[in-house]
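Researcher: Sequence recovery benchmark, item below. Answer with residues only.
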């Protein structure tokens, strides 16, 4: 017997591999089993592959999709809402009055983004409650890493929306810029398609998208019970995303 342990959190990614492993005993030694023993060997393969589907043995697709919705929904709402709200103030002229005050850029950013942090945390709580009680998604643990990942992703998304608002001249431009960010986040992050099944260039672009790392944090915490020691690379990528976007937003707003 050959034991194969499969990370089955994404059934669409592991289904073809498991099917190929199931056919392995009858095909692997087809050229070697010849002679008088060939018919008997074909009837009883010389070895057996035992597959253990870990984390999602029943191949329930909602276990993979519903946690991924957390990153997509937070990106759609927080980035777009922030970009539109700040750009609206610039259109109405109230931002000029704010620029005339002795307020530091970081103070303006904190004041504008603080309400949306509460919105993001509320959305996170609602999605997790629906995932548990409506879709029966197993929540094994990893709450500390998940909380840290959610906080970093919310702050980074809001800072990105603030950065877009400093570039856009109108609300239409802000919405278009938000769409240009959201579409790659959905297509290249591993939410719709298995990440390792994409071409190499798409994987390279996907590693730049912060939603990719956030989805790994959410799925790793809820389905595998991973702690910070298991997801520190993804958390470090989110920290870098927050620092870079916040610095760019303050530099753009300082004008």
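Model:
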């Amino acid at each position: 017997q050959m034991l194969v342990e499969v990370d089955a959190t994404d059934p669409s990614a592991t289904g073809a591999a498991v099917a190929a492993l199931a056919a392995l005993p009858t095909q692997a030694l087809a050229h070697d089993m010849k002679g008088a023993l060939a018919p008997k060997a074909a009837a009883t393969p010389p070895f057996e592959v035992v597959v253990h589907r870990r984390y999602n043995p029943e191949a329930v697709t909602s276990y993979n999709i519903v946690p991924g919705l957390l990153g997509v929904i937070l990106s759609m709402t927080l980035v777009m809402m922030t970009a539109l709200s700040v750009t609206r103030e610039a259109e109405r002229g109230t931002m000029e009055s704010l620029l005339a005050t002795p307020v530091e850029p970081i103070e303006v950013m904190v004041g504008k983004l603080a309400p949306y942090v509460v919105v993001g945390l509320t959305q996170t709580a609602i999605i997790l409650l629906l995932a548990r009680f409506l879709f029966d998604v197993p929540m094994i643990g990893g709450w500390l890493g998940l909380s840290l990942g959610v906080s970093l992703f919310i702050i980074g998304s809001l800072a990105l929306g603030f950065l877009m608002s400093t570039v856009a001249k109108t609300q239409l431009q802000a919405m278009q810029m938000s769409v240009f960010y959201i579409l790659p986040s959905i297509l290249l992050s591993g939410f719709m398609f298995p990440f390792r099944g994409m071409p190499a260039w798409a994987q390279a672009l996907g590693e730049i998208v912060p939603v990719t790392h956030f989805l790994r944090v959410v799925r790793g915490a809820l389905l595998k019970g991973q702690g910070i020691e298991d997801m520190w690379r993804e958390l470090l990528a989110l920290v870098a995303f927050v620092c870079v976007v916040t610095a760019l937003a303050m530099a753009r707003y300082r004008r």
